[in-house]
Amino acid sequence: MSPAERLQSLFVAVAALVGLAAGVLLPIEAFVGHLVLPALLVMLAAVFVQMNAAEVGAVRRAKTLVAISLVVNFVVVPALAWALGQGLLGGQPDVRIGLLLLLVTPCTDWYLVFTAIARGHTGIAAALLPVNLILQLLLLPVYVLLLGGQAAMVDVGTLAESVLLVLVVPLVIALLLRWTSARFKGIDWRTRHVVRPAGNLVLPLLYVAVFAMFAWQARTVLDHGSALLTLLPPLLIFFTVVPLLSTLAAKLFRLPAAERVTLVMTTTARNSPIALAIAVAAFPDRPLIAVALVVGPLLELPVLALLSQLIRVRTTAPESERAVPSQ
């Protein structure tokens, strides 16, 4: 894990604080408001460029792990997200929708890094990435409409258009870029000149989006600071319950140590960049929803770093289990 990745939570916080200060002190609200969605779309395309869909076949080697992860991510977690929102954020609908968007989107990027640190099975983790992405693409509108209730207040067409814009368009661009670069220049050239540079773009673009979001909505943040703090209890509960539940399930089904690590990471890590992009596109007139989503990574990344040490496989796993598949 690079120093930039280790310090991601700190950099997100700094970007938010600098953006907040800039939004209060400088007349840049109109300008930065137009930066948020483009930065997120380019960032997601850069994330998807690194995705190797050919690895989906690897899930056949770990059917039990895959089945458990799908049940936890797409059945248990949405139910838990709804319960936490209703129980702890019932009087704050925008914050509750922000929590829901964050929790029902499994991670499709940095959980691979923490899986590798904890010596999990990164081959299967990489194979789960496109599966998680496709399922959340299909199910996210369903979760928002069914679990968001009256607080969601968005029609199916608007939500479908937002998902299409935020997920499908960057995904199609990324797949075309991967295919054309490999077709005309070769796989090695694609890895050196497309995949690796795309990986280097993800974090800077995230920081730009966070800066622009807070500069754009500085007044919203100042007026609703106490509401954002109410996200901490449900997030702490989530990041405690889900790892414990996944660990118990792994023991119950007697998963190997490397697969246990993979299960915990893929069910705990959340996809805040995609959730943020969806919030910006689907709820443009309710900025508190998007602002609330930035709180998630500030807590999530330290939790994942701690988990990677607590559940780390203490004996060295075979290289075939640990190596991240080639791009």
Automatic annotation (TrEMBL):
It is found in: Cell membrane. The chain crosses the membrane at residues 31-53, 65-85, 97-117, 124-146, 158-177, 198-216, 228-249, 261-282, 288-307. One of its GO terms (cellular component) is plasma membrane. The keyword Transmembrane applies. The keyword Cell membrane applies. Its main location: membrane. GO terms for molecular function: antimonite transmembrane transporter activity; antiporter activity; arsenite transmembrane transporter activity. Keywords: Cell membrane, Membrane, Transmembrane, Transmembrane helix, Transport. It is a multi-pass membrane protein. Belongs to the arsenical resistance-3 (ACR3) (TC 2.A.59) family. This is ACR3 family arsenite efflux pump ArsB.
